[in-house]
């Protein structure tokens, strides 16, 4: 049985990106495919920018892990920094979507991405969102936003007219519906945001391809992954994310970066 190290998506979230992998581990699907997967906690990003998150693809290229579930945006940031010599490549796509959306006041008259050109967009404590938002507008041929730095009080800034847009992920817009005034969300909806399985170039091609296929084929459908979580997988998942002790999930060993040797 081949043993590979797989870096997870993030330290504190139950993301749809890595949940299927945890469900596959719990159900023994990886073991059935002849692969032992060691889940490794993701590397801490020094800051929440694309360049900051690039440390995760760089961990694959440097040999800290064999595979990672990550964003192509992070990988491209790392490739840019390394001049195209990252030493890692995508071998499977888990899903393709663009989650970036604009939160605007419901009475703003803004309804489409084309309406957002040149408007004031908040760059908050996670500046990656403003970067992704500006990039999506550029891709759509819309004028660049005017970036306004705002560390906190985003909803109040939108209410007071200090900013016109709060860039965020579509699945995070629910937080802003508690602001006390009506809002509208405008998805930018470009089909170039891809997440998937990143593999180290240093692996032999046969292991790379075969390992990727077995890891990919071991991943269950999203519905099955969700069902596994509801059947009680949340408890071991929480222990894993707290970086406690290695835990046995069937024949697959899952542990944190701190406790694995």
Structure description:
The chain is an alpha/beta fold and 261 residues long. It folds into two domains: 2-96 and 193-254, D-Maltodextrin-Binding Protein, domain 2 (3-Layer(aba) Sandwich); 100-187, D-Maltodextrin-Binding Protein, domain 2. It has helices at 19-26, 29-32, 50-53, 55-62, 72-81, 128-139, 154-159, 205-218, 222-241; strands spanning 2-7, 35-40, 67-71, 88-96, 100-105, 120-123, 146-149, 166-169, 183-187, 194-200, 247-249, 252-254. A five-stranded mixed β-sheet has the order 2-1-3-10-4. A three-stranded antiparallel β-sheet has the order 8-5-9. Strands 6-7 form a two-stranded parallel ribbon. The longest helix has 20 residues, at 222-241. The model is unreliable at 220-261 (pLDDT under 50).
Provide a quick synopsis of the model.
Helices cover 33% and strands 24% of the residues.
Q: Tell me the CATH architecture of the largest domain.
A: 3-Layer(aba) Sandwich
Give start-end ranges of low-pLDDT stretches: 220-261
* Strand fraction: 15-25%
Distance between the termini: 19 Å
Task: Characterize the biggest β-sheet.
Answer: 5 strands, mixed
Task: Classify the helix fraction into a percent range.
Answer: 25-40%
What pattern of helices and strands is seen along the backbone? EHHEHHEHEEEHEHEEEHHEE
Tally of helical runs = 9
Number of domains: 2
Classified by CATH, the class of the largest domain is Alpha Beta
Query: Averaging pLDDT over every residue, what do you get?
Result: 76
């Amino acid at each position: 049985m081949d043993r590979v190290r797989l870096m997870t998506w993030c330290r504190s979230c139950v993301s749809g990106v890595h949940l299927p992998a945890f469900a596959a581990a719990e159900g023994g699907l990886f073991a059935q495919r002849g692969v032992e997967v060691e889940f490794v906690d993701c590397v801490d990003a020094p800051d929440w920018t694309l360049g900051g998150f690039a440390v995760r693809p760089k961990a694959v290229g440097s040999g800290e892990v064999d595979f990672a579930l990550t964003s192509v945006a992070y990988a491209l940031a790392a490739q840019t920094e390394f001049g195209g010599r990252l030493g890692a490549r995508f071998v499977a796509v888990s899903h393709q979507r663009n989650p970036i959306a604009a939160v605007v006041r419901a009475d703003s008259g803004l309804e489409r991405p084309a309406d957002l050109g040149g408007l004031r967009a908040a760059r908050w404590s996670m500046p990656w969102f403003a970067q992704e938002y500006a990039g999506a507008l550029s891709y759509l041929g819309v004028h660049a936003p005017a970036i306004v730095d705002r560390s906190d009080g985003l909803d109040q800034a939108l209410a007071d007219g200090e900013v016109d847009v709060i860039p965020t992920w579509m699945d995070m817009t629910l937080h802003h519906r508690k602001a006390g005034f009506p809002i509208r969300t405008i998805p930018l909806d470009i089909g170039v945001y891809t997440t998937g399985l990143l593999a180290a170039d240093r692996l032999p091609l046969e292991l790379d391809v075969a390992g990727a296929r077995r890891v990919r084929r071991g991943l269950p459908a999203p519905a099955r992954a969700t069902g596994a979580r509801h059947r009680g997988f949340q408890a071991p998942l929480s222990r894993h994310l707290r970086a406690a002790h290695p835990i046995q999930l069937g024949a697959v060993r899952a542990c944190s970066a701190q406790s694995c040797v």
